[in-house]
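Our platform keeps sequence and structure together, in a single record for each protein. Such a record has a labelled line for the sequence and another for the backbone structure tokens. Nothing more is needed to write down the fold, since each code stands for a local backbone conformation. For reference, a complete record is included directly beneath this paragraph:
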Amino acid sequence: MIEIFSGGAEFTCRADRELWQGEHITARFSVPRYGINDSFDMENYVRHGRICRVDHISPNVRRIALEFSEPLPFEPAQDDQAQESQAASQPVSV
């Protein structure tokens, strides 16, 4: 996985099967959901979507940009921002 957004993802895959822009595929992946004290759980997702772009990285590797039919129920960057905000608002005892 290269990048994950609520509405899509970019990932690499082997070039043993030709994929094309506009093709509909199903992706299965896991995303870490961070909690307090640097804890996290992996959440598994299955998303159907449309390929927006296919980059030929090498003869053996493709980079795929996929737009999900249904967005994720969160923004992946939200967890990090929420954690930083929570840490900044906690009182510090000296």
